[in-house]
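To illustrate the input format used throughout this study, we show a single complete record. The first block contains the structure-token representation of the backbone; no residue identities are included at this stage. The design step must infer an amino acid for every position from geometry alone.
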């Protein structure tokens, strides 16, 4: 059985973390760097997006994190003299980080966070969903080996190694073991299939080590492209413990400033379910199987595994000498026959720049009908009859910030100032679980909720410190049975990161 070995996945990933510590002892004085952009400061990923949207960077950047390889060369070749201020600031920040890497100094970071309450709705660069945390990270490489060791301490004595990894590069490819934040798609406020709403999932990943065009004449027609395939395991404290998760993502840019992505995720195996090689073949070939009984009629057969798949697209163009980006994502699960997906959720957005400020408007809807267009029932997206904990990891959905049965619209803005200061303001309006049945974990009071939330932060470097202060306030109209009430909640938080020389 091939996946008798999958039972050892968690042990293997823990062994990788131990190996990280051993490597650190031996090589801490050597050259140190992350192979991906923004694994410590996610605002660097926004800088990549800025350069791509303004047409200065020919790379695909709608999958986070983006590899440095190839992208770094393009950044260093940029002529900043003719750039507008906004992309010039982005290029300068990225160039500064590349300069630090060339110094070949050990990069160690201490991050501390304190919050008045747990954060409910996450964002790409928002606070963790805990009230107090501390993290120490060290990133390094030795030859073809690169790694990051992050030790996280949370309130209540909880510890984990989230955002630690060990990676080996060979040719144009990268093999990685670990758990790092990821974000698949062009959405600014959320992703329907994979975001950092949940804790990062421990995976073994095989990925391309570049997101720029290939030199191969057989692949050059794709333009810049990126591919990753990953296999991991979810937590054991769920209805079906130790469920396996297969993640796949491909993006390419056949025309400059046009990006197209395809994603596929599938949950399979787990305690009480077949997990062998034959089962894996059934999963990836979309076979119909008989579950929970010795024999099934044709109507009782179901697809092996719980599949989510779809595509996204983003195109940027100029209006009045400023870029405008339009983007969309469509992710579905379940199918009546073959690979025809029936339950589809959608995300749409548009963004542009006003001076040094990026503004976006985005909406998504996971309150979709089940099993076809003529079915009016809901409560199916991110849910499954076999995997009753849903498409979630530690009770937070792996996809949308707003979980299942949610409609939302978000207006966001990101300001860039001189000397590296950044501010962000986000206004969200959401309708959660309108039918009042089977509420998702995102609801914390009542079965139906209409919420208006205003959140934001201000971040600025001070010497070796990067300081951030932020918060949110939300007005919640809650319905539970016949009871209705309004509730106003607020959160403030402070985050400080220190970079050691």
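Output of the design step:
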């Amino acid at each position: 059985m091939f996946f008798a070995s999958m039972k050892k996945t968690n042990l293997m990933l823990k062994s990788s973390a131990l190996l990280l510590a051993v490597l650190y002892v031996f090589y801490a004085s050597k050259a140190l760097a992350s192979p991906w952009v923004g694994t410590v400061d996610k605002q660097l990923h926004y800088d990549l997006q800025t350069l791509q949207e303004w047409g200065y960077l020919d790379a695909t950047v709608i999958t986070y994190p983006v590899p440095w390889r190839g992208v770094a060369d393009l950044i260093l070749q940029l002529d900043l003299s003719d750039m507008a201020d906004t992309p010039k600031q982005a290029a300068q920040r990225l160039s500064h980080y590349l300069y630090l890497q060339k110094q070949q100094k050990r990069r160690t970071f201490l991050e501390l966070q304190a919050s008045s309450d747990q954060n409910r709705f996450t964002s790409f660069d928002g606070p963790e969903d805990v009230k107090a945390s501390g993290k120490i990270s060290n990133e390094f490489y030795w030859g073809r080996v690169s790694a990051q060791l992050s030790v996280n301490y949370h309130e209540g004595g909880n510890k984990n190694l989230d955002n630690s990894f060990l990676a080996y590069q060979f040719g144009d490819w990268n093999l990685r073991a670990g758990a790092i934040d990821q974000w698949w798609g062009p959405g600014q406020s959320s992703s329907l299939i994979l975001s950092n709403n949940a804790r990062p999932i421990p995976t073994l990943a095989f990925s391309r080590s570049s997101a720029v065009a290939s030199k191969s004449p057989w692949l050059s027609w794709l333009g810049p492209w990126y591919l990753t395939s990953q296999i991991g395991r979810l937590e054991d404290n769920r209805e079906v413990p130790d469920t396996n998760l297969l993640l796949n993502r491909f993006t390419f840019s056949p025309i400059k400033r046009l990006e197209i992505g395809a994603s596929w995720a599938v949950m399979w195996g787990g305690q009480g379910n077949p997990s062998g090689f034959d089962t894996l073949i059934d999963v990836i070939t979309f076979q119909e199987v008989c579950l929970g009984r010795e024999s099934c009629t044709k109507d009782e057969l179901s697809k092996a595994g719980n599949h989510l798949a779809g595509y996204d697209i983003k195109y940027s163009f100029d209006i009045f000498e400023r870029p405008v980006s339009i983007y969309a994502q469509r992710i579905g699960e379940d199918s009546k026959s073959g690979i025809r997906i029936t339950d589809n959720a959608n995300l749409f957005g548009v963004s542009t720049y006003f001076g040094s400020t990026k503004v976006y408007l985005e909406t998504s809807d996971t309150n979709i009908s089940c099993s076809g267009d003529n079915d009016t029932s809901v409560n199916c997206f991110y849910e499954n009859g076999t995997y009753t904990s849903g498409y979630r990891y530690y009770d937070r959905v792996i996809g949308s910030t707003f979980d299942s049965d949610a409609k939302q619209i978000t207006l966001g803005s990101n300001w860039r100032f001189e000397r590296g200061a950044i501010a962000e303001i986000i206004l969200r309006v959401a309708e959660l679980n309108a039918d009042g049945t089977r509420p998702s974990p995102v609801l914390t009071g009542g079965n139906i909720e209409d919420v208006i939330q205003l959140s934001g932060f201000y971040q600025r470097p001070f010497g070796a410190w990067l300081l951030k202060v932020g918060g949110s306030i939300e007005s919640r109209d809650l319905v539970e049975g016949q009871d209705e009430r309004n509730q106003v909640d607020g959160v403030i938080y402070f985050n400080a990161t220190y970079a050691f020389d």
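Structural context for interpreting the output: The domain at 2-500 is CATH 2.40.160.130 (Porin). The radius of gyration is 22 Å.
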